[in-house]
Amino acid sequence: MKITPSQTLEQIAKLIGAEYDGDPKHLITGLNEIHRVEKGDIVFVDHPKYYDKALQSKATTILINKKVPCPAGKALLFADDPFTAYNKLVRHFQPVNYSLKQVSDSAKIGKNTIIMNGAFIGNNVSIGDDCVIHPNVCIYDNTVIGNRVVIHANSVIGGDAFYYKRRPEKFDKMITCGIVVIEDDVELGASCTIDRGVSDVTRIGAGSKLDNQVHIGHDTQIGKMCLFAAQVGVAGCVTIEDNVTLWGQVGVPSNIHIGKGAVLLGQSAPSKSLEGGKSYLGSPAGEAKDKMRELITLKKITEEMTKKNGAE
Q: Considering just the CA atoms, what is the radius of gyration of the chain in Å?
C-alpha cells in the first residue's frame, strides 16, 4: 500500500503515539507486511523470532516492540503493540468507504463488457474490454481486471485476507489494504474466491483458467496459462509459475513455490516447494512415478500378507 503524499518519520510517530530512532525527516512512502516490503515501506514486527528478518529486510522503517539499535539508513518506531499501531496507520491512510450502489460511480468499465444483474462492482474497480461478469459476482474495491476476462456466477474477488493475531481473549484481524489483479484472458468458474493482498497484490496471470469453487489466498502470485480444477485451495503468499496444472482438490500451503510446468494430480498436497516440469502425487506430494511405485509395492506386500495369513 502506497502512502500519498509521503510522510516523515516524525509525522507517523505522532499519528500512533510512538517514540522513534532516526532522522525526523526520514521519508515513508508505503505500508507492507514482511513478504512484500520494499524501500520506503514501514513493516511491523512483534515477535523476537522475526526481529532480524524485519530489521534486515528491504523496509526502511521498522515498527517494533523492543528497543534495538537502528540499522544504517533506516528508522525505527517503538510501540508496545506494533500490530495495533500498524492497523491504525492502515485505517488512517485507507479509511472505510463502502459503496452502496450496484456499480460504484468510480468504477471504470471497458468497451463491450457485460455486467449481469445482481453483480456488485466496488469503488475504483477497473474492468477492461470484452469481459463478462455473471450474476451475483462480487468485486471488491480497487480490483484490477484486464481484457476478455470471464467471471462466473457467485464468485468473490478481493475479499479480505485471512490474517489474524491470536490474543488470550480473541482473534485480532489485520486490516487488509491490498488488491487483486486479474490479467487478460482469465476465466474464473462459479463460486471462486480470490482474496486480496494484505498490503500488496494477489495476481492471476494472463490466460489462466480456474474451475468452480477454487480459492486463492492473499498475496499469492499465479503465473500465466495455469489450469486449476475444481475445489483447489491455495493458501496465502504462494508463488505458482507459468503453465502449472493443479487437478481437483489439490491443497497448497502458504509460502510454497511451484515451478513452471509442474502438474499436481488430484487431492495432492505439497509440504515443500516443488520443481517445475514434473508431475506430483500424494500427500505429502512426491514425484508421481515414485508414488505410483510405492503404491504398487504396498499393494503387493498387502496381498502377500493376506495370502500368508490365509494359508496359516
A: 23
Whether 237 and 34 have beta carbons less than 8 Å apart is answered as no
pTM of the full predicted structure? 0.91
pLDDT, tens digit, 9 for 90 and up, residues 162-197? 999 999 999 999 999 999 999 999 999 999 999 999
Task: Give the pLDDT confidence of 243-268 residue by residue, as tens digits.
Answer: 999 999 999 999 999 999 999 999 99
Side chain identity, residue 157: I
218 is a catalytic site residue: yes
Q: What is the distance between the alpha carbons of residues 47 and 144, in angstroms, rounded to a whole number?
A: 34
Among candidate residues 134, 152, 215, 218, the one labeled active-site is 218
For the stretch 30-66, pLDDT in tens is 999 888 899 999 999 999 999 999 999 999 999 999 9
Structure-block grid coordinates of residue 221 = 502470485
CB 139 within 8 A of CB 133: yes
